[in-house]
């Protein structure tokens, strides 16, 4: 009898060659195959007969192939298929359909799924680009035939070409489930399933693949059947339980219990330049409470741009220093590290304590670096501010007590901080700061092993940033506005999506690549469903357009710098900064802008993170429709940092997709980063959100964080209960000893295999 952990090559109907192919899709065991769920279902219980179709509806039709031909129009080849039932006929059209030639033979049975459109020709209706599947004919075995028609049929993302598409998967998965009847081990405790009303694992697997007759289609398509919910819950439960375990292990580690005394409070009071906001007070209290604990702090401080994270972090660092420990602050760029260094020096000058502050970045000369490393190593530097150089230069601290990581766009460096403390020393506390508002659901899993503090209030006295959309034709007015602001002594940024030459491969486009290109005019856009209910637009023409930019008329920073400098902004001091400049040059330019020696800075998104230029009041973004929502929000955050009224002007191209529209409108409507983040998540899906795929967000098999928020919250709750049952009753509710042991065993196996996180530190 097959087992879930059998290598997939032993599954009937797979074999070694196919196993190798599908391994690339992450399918290695029988279990993986069973958790490869259909992304869609077709109601072929009662397929619609052709005479009852209504225009506008989505319909599933089973009919006989009557004829097929390729029409060569001037625009493109169109493949036309005619199917029929008795005297009724239906036409199906595929644009650029040459690839379908020879695919259909008259007399074959075909299942079609698509939108019913009125047709002018003899047939009553047509379908444009329907999904289709050739059905087995009478000569195929009855069992196979039964999987295809007369039931709710699962549709799968192909595991490799047409050979490993839905039909193949139905057969293999059906047989596997049959052969494992009664032998799929349960992995959740009975009591928990009962309490939550979730079906058992085997039933759930069977029913998501082969839904029983009469299952509501809407529920199926929304992955909301009890069977779906059970499998989604299962996945999220084990994720949350793993995170729970990680947190528990962290609590068991030996950290530093920092003391808070009146002396410390006085030290903080000395340097505070203003009254902290209520949110700053609250988050600091949360941080300090952690720091007092004997276990190491692992906390995330989230706060929108300008919410005042720095001063909160600085206070935490004073706590460490006043306790005789060193504190380190790591920034993502040299400019930011230097900015933090200067700001910290200025603030701490007010202190009677004479803290020694040291900067360590890659571009310092070797002698300086060596000297600073010495100061750090001997414990003479109490506050160390730097870049990645802190890790790369193998700096070893004497008594490192607190690490603050600022603007943590690139995640996954946490483990490496181990390098920075001396062996046999207590684990330092760690505070991660991010200006990226992360929706709670994502934060829960992305940073599930961190506690979270949110700075949800801006310091007083800020005037909201005025945000406007302007079509490209009116750019002249924008330049005029920029000139006026400069005449009033202000500064401006003008941001472009690419550096030079219309080329789309510039590193700055990391985020912009997934921005949806505008829809081409000709054919109705072809929506291709990818998987797990996520859809991606396939706009072949638009894709061509982005890759042959000559046509796209994309403006670049380098060219526009030249044009603006000599044209509309002539006479102003116009600078240029982008990612291809080396770090020193970037730094020089940024400093000149900071000192007010440059009026207008033409830039790419390199300016996205954190440099504070309070005198800059205008942020112009050209081709704004090409940027991600989060990115535009970050860019806008570069202005509005002083008392003067600030402006964000989004110049847009001629064609904007509906999603692009939605993004731009949201930006004009609100300045609330969390609201925008939620929207971004909803639009793009968790996979694309802030490039989280690279950032270590687990790649879920069945769950979808946007769709399954509620189940995530439930799973988190249940995981906490399971890990720490409060009393005898809860313990009972968490299952028998044997069940609990099984849960832990599965957790270990699942995490090691899928996330590799538990042991990671
Ligand atoms: P971010 O969260 O983006 O890192 P910063 O810490 O750089 O924000 O703070 C943004 C600006 O607001 C800084 O100029 C800072 O001095 C100022 N600021 C921070 N907190 C307050 C406060 N409570 N009252 C007045 N100004 C503040
Ligand atoms: Mg900051």
Please estimate the helix content: 25-40%
Bound molecules: adenosine-5'-diphosphate, magnesium ion
Give average pLDDT, whole number.
83
Widest sheet: strand order?
A: 11-12-10-13-14-9-15
Distance between the termini: 38 Å
- Percentage of residues in strands: 15-25%
- What is CATH's topology name of one domain? Rossmann fold
Given this structure, which CATH class of one domain is correct? Alpha Beta
In CATH terms, the superfamily of one domain is P-loop containing nucleotide triphosphate hydrolases
CATH architecture of one domain: 3-Layer(aba) Sandwich
Describe, in plain words, how this protein is organized in 3D.
The protein has 761 residues and is α/β, with parallel strands linked by helices. The protein has 25 helices and 23 strands. The strands form 5 sheets. It has a 7-stranded parallel β-sheet with strand order 11-12-10-13-14-9-15, with helices on both faces. A hairpin with a 6-residue loop joins β5 and β6. The longest helix is centred in the first third of the chain and has 27 residues, at 226-252. The radius of gyration is 30 Å and the shape is globular. Residues 503-551, 690-696 and 756-761 have low confidence and may be disordered.
